[in-house]
Amino acid sequence: MRSQIATSNKESGNTSSQGERRYLPYAFTEQGIAMLSAVLRSDEAIQVSVNIMNTFVKMRRFLTENALMFDKLNSLELRQLEYQKESNEKFDQGA
User: Fold this and answer.
1) Residue 75 has what pLDDT?
2) How far apart are CA 41 and CA 43, in angstroms?
3) What is the pLDDT of residues 15-47, one digit of tens each?
4) Quick one: pLDDT at residue 55?
5) Do 53 and 30 touch, CB atoms closer than 8 A?
6) Confidence class of residue 65 from pLDDT cuts 50, 70 and 90?
7) Which letter does DSSP use for residue 45 in this model?
8) CA torsion, points 31, 34, 39, 41, in degrees to nearest 10?
9) pLDDT of amino acid 28
10) Would you say 29 and 17 are in contact if contact means Cβ atoms under 8 Å apart?
11) Are 55 and 49 within 8 A, CB to CB?
């Protein structure tokens, strides 16, 4: 039995030698919620499934509407890392 809250580590055998997961984490996917809603028939289960599906739709919309901003942030981060690398190299040369 695996713990859903513990972190994976090499000693427990839950990761490969490269530190990658051997199994997917427990999480709801949009497709999983759709399949679950087909099985669970109570009013409360249906309402929860609808709410989760609406959350996925909102999340997808947010990511789409802000894709340009995420690209700009990524570009800024890459430039900042390059600047930091250059600064470190100049500092090392002067020391």
Assistant:
1) 96
2) 6
3) 555 667 677 767 778 888 888 777 888 888 888
4) 92
5) yes
6) very high
7) H
8) 160
9) 74
10) no
11) no
User: What six digits make up the tokens of 40?
Assistant: 């669970």
With beta carbons less than 8 A apart as the criterion, state whether 35 and 28 touch.
no
Which pair of structure tokens corresponds to residue 85?
């690398």
Find the length of the chain.
95
Distance CA(82)–CA(95), nearest Å, equals 20
Q: Contact at 8 Å (CB) between 54 and 48?
A: no
Q: Helices 43-65 and 30-39 sit at what angle, rounded to 10 degrees?
A: 160
Task: Round to whole Å and give the CA distance between 95 and 87.
Answer: 12
Rounded to whole angstroms, the Cα distance separating 34 from 53 reads 8
Q: Exposed, middle or buried, 48 (CB in 10 Å: 0-12/13-18/19+)?
A: middle
| Global pTM exceeds 0.85 | no
Decide: helix, strand or coil at residue 15: strand
Let me know: does 49 contact 35? Beta carbons within 8 Å: no
